[in-house]
Design a protein that fits this description.
alpha/beta, Rossmann fold, six-stranded parallel β-sheet, 16 helices, disordered C terminus
Length: 506
């Protein structure tokens, strides 16, 4: 394999496993280096996530890369994440290339295909590198999965081809961090292990002096530089979750005595774009109840909120199997509010038609019947950022759409939004059931105020927490946290390891 040297300082962060904190660390370092006056951009060659974000250049990327771009104070772009896999089932995923849906593939098909995607990855990386002073690359899973090394574009395949120095992150909270770091070096081929320049220990709890000998053991056995021991970051719940695997970090029922609005959200297997609720869960006046399989909806709730889904028909069947359809009917019949976002909107209709069987083995599935609309699935995928007007309040709204399927019917004559003179969404005749394809609506404070209004509650706009402000403060806080515990100056120097021009920051 021939190596290609990079011309822009670049460093990659890989992990000993999934969920070791790569995404959060990269986001924090993006903000840290940005605050130091460096033009930085995040990059992830390949991601797998159903929590996606729409970009200004008309595509979709993983939510983590959108957050990292925000941390870098840049507009999220398809260049930040050129290859995205969105799981539809246990065996199939949508393959997104440069922000656009390519096709649906099985895991086996993707393993055979992935090597051919390297050209897209390289092209995106080089375009980013031309316009930034520093690139922070995030790996996927672990390079220790050497059974997947052939054709790899996500980890060492990318790092080795472009001669990118790599930092290995280990999660001490799981236990066995010494073995996982040392073992990673042992199983890698020489050409790959030679790219690794240092290691970080993440999620430490307790007295750090008790791990001094552990750090020494890792240094002696790997010959890597020690770059930081990061204490467990308690404010992780204030940041958007990377994927459904991270839901347990943020989805917990925290009762707030002062809350006046109670919202129930059923958690389904293929839930997607769950960052829609981030602005709601930071509100002191709102209690969110996450209803998991086997649970019943709590009493005295005001709103049932159905989130998006990567497999609407399958999630609808799961909803029924839990008996939640009956509880939703009871809630609605008692003048309760029901709101569906994207896939949740599709579930609320009379039927979901899937003539090409894109999501299911059945061509037609009965919906919940709370809205007089029907949805038909098609290959066409809509991915766009939007700005428009919320019709009931005449307030401006900003968000995005990511979906397949078109929804039509009588209740669409009472839309929720006017978007460039086109209408979106539907409202029931009794003004109690609402559906929309627009994600991110609750990032608009006026729409949170609207939730209280339709439930007969009043709230001062000044009592609504601006989530964007909260997110910015959280990123600054994360940056401060990493600056205290990570040797960022050495990381910056290591990023220049394989380029000739070492004077960029002097």
């Amino acid at each position: 394999m021939s190596k290609i040297s990079t011309k822009t300082p670049t460093i990659m962060f890989q992990g000993t496993g999934s969920s070791v904190g790569k995404s959060v660390i990269v986001a924090g370092l993006c903000r840290l280096f940005t605050r130091k006056g460096i033009s930085v951009a995040p990059f992830k060659p390949q991601n797998m996530s159903n929590n996606a974000a729409a970009t200004f250049d008309g595509g979709e990327i993983g939510r983590a890369q959108a957050l990292q771009a925000l941390a870098s104070r840049m507009e999220p772009s398809i260049l930040n994440n050129p290859i995205l896999l969105k799981p539809q089932s246990e065996s199939r995923s949508q393959l997104i290339i440069n922000g656009k849906l390519s096709k649906s593939v099985t895991g086996y098909e993707y393993q055979k295909l992935k090597g051919s995607l390297m050209s897209h990855v390289e092209e995106a990386y080089h375009k980013l590198a031309k316009n930034h002073q520093l690139i922070l690359v995030e790996g996927a899973g672990s390079p220790a999965e050497i059974n997947l090394r052939n054709g790899d574009i996500a980890n060492m395949g990318f790092a080795t081809k472009l001669s990118i120095p790599t930092v290995m992150i280990g999660d001490i909270d799981r236990g066995g961090v010494i073995a996982s770091l040392v073992g990673t070096k042992v199983v890698l081929d020489d050409i790959d292990r030679n790219n690794i320049v240092g290691f970080i220990i993440n999620k430490f709890r307790g007295d750090p002096s008790l791990f001094d000998n552990g750090i020494d053991e890792i240094k002696n056995r790997t010959k890597w530089q020690f770059l930081g021991l990061i204490p467990f970051y308690e404010n992780i719940s204030k940041l958007p979750a990377e994927d459904s695997h991270d839901l347990d970090k943020i989805l917990y029922n925290k009762s707030q005595k002062e809350a006046v609005l109670n919202i129930a959200i059923p958690i389904l297997s293929k839930i997607s774009n769950f960052d829609d609720i981030d602005p709601l869960r930071v509100q002191k006046n709102i209690n969110i109840h996450y209803v998991r399989p086997g649970d019943s909806f709590p009493k005295k709730i005001h709103i049932i909120l159905l989130l998006g889904s990567k497999s609407t028909i399958n999630d609808l069947e799961e909803l029924r199997s839990n008996g939640w359809d009956k509880e939703i009917y009871d809630h609605s019949n008692n003048d309760g509010i029901v709101i569906g976002l994207c896939g949740g909107y599709q579930m609320l209709g009379q039927a979901i038609r899937d003539p090409k069987k894109l999501e299911s083995t059945r061509s037609t599935t009965k919906g919940l019947g709370l809205l007089d609309v029907e949805t038909e699935m098609s290959h066409e995928k809509i991915v766009t950022k939007i700005n428009g007007t919320h019709i009931q309040t005449n307030n401006k709204v900003y968000g995005y759409e990511i979906h397949i399927g078109k929804t039509l019917g009588e209740d669409c004559n009472r839309p929720l939004f006017n978007i460039n003179n086109k209408y979106d969404g539907a409202t029931s005749k009794n003004n109690k059931v609402f559906g929309t394809y627009v994600h991110g609506i609750f990032h608009n404070k006026q729409l949170i105020e609207w939730l209280f209004k339709i439930c007969g509650k009043t709230i001062k706009n000044t009592d609504i927490i601006d989530y964007q402000d909260t997110l910015e403060k959280s990123l600054d806080d994360l940056s401060d946290h990493l600056e205290s515990y990570v040797n960022w100056k050495t990381i910056l120097e290591l990023s220049k390891k394989n380029i000739n021009d070492s004077n960029q920051y002097e």
